[in-house]
Amino acid sequence: IKMQFKTLAFLSILSILFFTGCDSKDKNEETNENTNQVKIENINKKSDFQLKTIDNVIIDIKLENDKIIVTNYPNKIVLINFFATWCPPCKVEIPNLIKLKQDYKNELEIVSIVLEEMKTDEELTTFMKSYGVNYTVVNSPESFDLAKNLGGIKSIPTMYLIDRNGKIFQKYVGLVPNEMMEIDIKKVLEK
């Protein structure tokens, strides 16, 4: 019975770790808990962001009222994923994101934004290759400004599912089951 209890306790702790998320470094930011009502704050009145990918491509993002417009991908659904390489749930979700990108390659773009300072593009390229990542990865100083203007990222992974018009359909905090994301992607495709 002791062994069963230890196993159950271990699995409980493990599931709590994986189904929550990693705390972000900035503890002073408040989060909006209602997932469908994301407040875009524009703290420093900045609404246009140019984020550099690890492949030196510029991703243009514009914040406008309740929209996140990724001008590089017109008429596509975009999943913006804030993550860090040291975060266990972020690593666990990578295969799910790879599968979503494969399954919806004509309708969905994934932009994964690293929230780590002092991480080189070479380090990120090596990390992403080791996981077989097939989607866009951003490593840019402006990533932190974007995160703040979205109301702050308190926990990672945090993701925003954006419809073809730039409207935020869903905000996810922590590890999200692939099935749940697929249901939401299908709802957005039906709109």
How is this structure best summarized?
With 191 residues, the chain is an alpha+beta fold.
Q: How would you describe what is shown here?
A:
This protein is α+β, with helices and mostly antiparallel strands and 191 residues long. 35% of the residues lie in helices and 25% in strands. It has helices at 2-19, 88-103, 121-131, 142-149, 178-190; strands spanning 22-23, 48-52, 58-64, 67-70, 77-83, 108-114, 136-138, 155-156, 158-162, 168-173. The N and C termini lie far apart (52 Å).
Topology:
Elements: H1 2-19, E1 22-23, E2 48-52, E3 58-64, E4 67-70, E5 77-83, H2 88-103, E6 108-114, H3 121-131, E7 136-138, H4 142-149, E8 155-156, E9 158-162, E10 168-173, H5 178-190
Question: Fraction of residues in helices?
Answer: 25-40%
Biggest sheet overview: 5 strands, mixed
Strand coverage percent: 25-35%
Structural class: alpha+beta
Order of helices and strands: HEEEEEHEHEHEEEH
Task: Write out the strand line-up for the largest beta sheet, numbering strands in chain order.
Answer: 7-6-5-9-10
**Form type:** globular
Number of strand elements: 10
Q: Could you tell me the radius of gyration in angstroms?
A: 17 Å
Give the overall pLDDT as a whole number: 82
Terminal Cα span: 52 Å
Helix tally equals 5
Low-confidence stretches: 5-19, 25-37
